[in-house]
């Protein structure tokens, strides 16, 4: 059952998951470094 935004919602969910993972991993990565700029 695909609506008008069937294909777009799939990419939106994938992009949202990637964005959330990136947003959660980056601060923890730089936080673990304890020394950048």
Question: In summary, what is this structure?
Answer:
With about 35 residues, the protein is mostly helical.
The overall pLDDT, averaged over residues, is: 78
What is the gyration radius calculated from CA atoms? 16 Å
Strand portion: under 5%
Give me the count of strands.
0
What can be said about the biggest beta sheet?
A: none
Low-confidence stretches: none
Overall body shape: rod-shaped
Order of helices and strands: H
The assigned structural class equals mainly alpha
N- to C-terminal distance: 50 Å
Structure annotation, total helices: 1
Q: How much helix is in the residues? A: over 70%
Could you explain how this protein is built, in words?
With 37 residues, the protein is mainly alpha-helical. Helices cover 76% and strands 0% of the residues. It contains one helix and no strands. It has one helix spanning 6-33.
